[in-house]
Amino acid sequence: MSCMLCAKSLENEDDENSYNMLHRVVRENWATMKEYYRAAVDAFAKGDYARADRLMEQGHFYNRMSEWLEKQMKNLYKSFFNLVNPMMNDINQRKPFVLSSSI
């Protein structure tokens, strides 16, 4: 999934769906990164150093992408928390409604 597609989809979704989608993309990027690193180790072990170098570069790319996406996910979570937190403070400051049990 390309980053441009992810960004465009995020603009069209509400915050919860955006967070879930971003979380899924982060997991996919980490998995892809690990696959490239494993393939690089295999290529290096077989003596194909040029291929190992290319695969390591791809792994580094997905590593940077995953870190950036995680940061975006944290920012989205913080903005959602900042939106919800004042409402929760207002609810917590209200006195509880108690039913009298005079039967």
From TrEMBL:
<dbReference type="Pfam" id="PF08590">
    <property type="entry name" value="DUF1771"/>
</dbReference>
<dbReference type="InterPro" id="IPR013899">
    <property type="entry name" value="DUF1771"/>
</dbReference>
<protein>
    <recommendedName>
        <fullName>DUF1771 domain-containing protein</fullName>
    </recommendedName>
</protein>
<feature type="domain" description="DUF1771">
    <location>
        <begin position="24"/>
        <end position="67"/>
    </location>
</feature>
